[in-house]
Amino acid sequence: xxxxxVRTAALDIGGAAIKAAEAGGVAFSLPFEVWRNPSGLSEAxxxxxxxxxxxxxxxxxxxxxxxxxxxxxxxxxxxVLEAAEAARLRLAxxxxxxxxxxxxxxxxxxxxxxxxxxCAAANWLALAIFAAREMGDADRGLAADAGSxxxxxxxxxxxxxxxxxKTDTARLLAAELxxxxxxxxxxxAVADRLPYRGRECxxxxxxxxxxxxxxxxxxxxxxxxxxxxxPTADGRPATCSCARxxxxxxxxxxxxxxxxxxxxxxxxxxxCEQARRVQAALERVAAGLDxxxxxxxxxxxxxxxxxxxxxxxxxxxxLLSFSKRWGTxxxxxxxxxxxxxxxxxxxxxxxxxxGGR
Length: 357
What we know:
- By secondary structure, the chain is of the alpha/beta class.
- 36% of the residues lie in helices and 18% in strands.
- The protein is built from twelve helices and 14 strands.
- The strands form three sheets. Strands 3-2-1-4-5-6 form a six-stranded mixed beta sheet, sandwiched between helices. Strands 7, 8, 9, 10, 13 and 14 form a six-stranded mixed beta sheet that branches. It has a two-stranded antiparallel ribbon with strand order 11-12.
- The protein is globular, with a radius of gyration of 20 Å.
């Protein structure tokens, strides 16, 4: 159990947002595009930490090292560590920093700097360990998180995760990392054509629209009159009207030749295509369980996508919704939320089941 005497702030630093949480339940996402302003990362981290309660320990995980503003992932990890450490020292110099690794433990800053690649893109494992424990002794389980950009899927067995891969590349090969999400993914990365008035029209390979536009039109994501995060493809508001304009351009049309019915048909088609892609990955990961999953923990902005995908494959699978149990913001920041609740003594201990299959 988490030691209540140790106040932990947890950060999951991604390329497009900083996810933050504390053991008491507070969780949120702070938009920050690292590749646009890498020198501003430390200030952004400090801004996130100021929204949390005072802390004794800063627990950190990341995926921002993959940003193309860094020459290598090693450089990226070290840059993120430096930015986080500077923010920690400004706010809470008496606190300690711990970094989560792909071995499933928390290490000190010196160890992390010596082995930076062990700290790269480990956030999925923190969530998988937490989710596996929530599923208890389920013999066959899945932990799945669908975000704005990617979807993570990890098989679990009897209270522990059993990933096939650990690095991003290995996880892509194993279908445990699927580079598709419910906001930032370009439409042409989900389908190569759209239905249009009884025919199928090939798509323009341009960043005219993203999956955010499809889900605005299906009603899965609420409209926003502001410009929000992430930015839309054309920089205009995240509204159904603007989403229709953006989808129209995917077939080189505009609102004069692409009406509301056309837009809704296109949006529903794209939602189905993305669900099929996620289902294929779920089946690939579940194949290692020697039977259908008994339980699945689902989280992320795309919980709705995962709920449909899992239910479509395994109707009897018990679904544990992060948003229903801990709230929508906790679901969006699920990796940070899980990290904030890690047992305070973890560091050298390797959690059970965190190795490969």
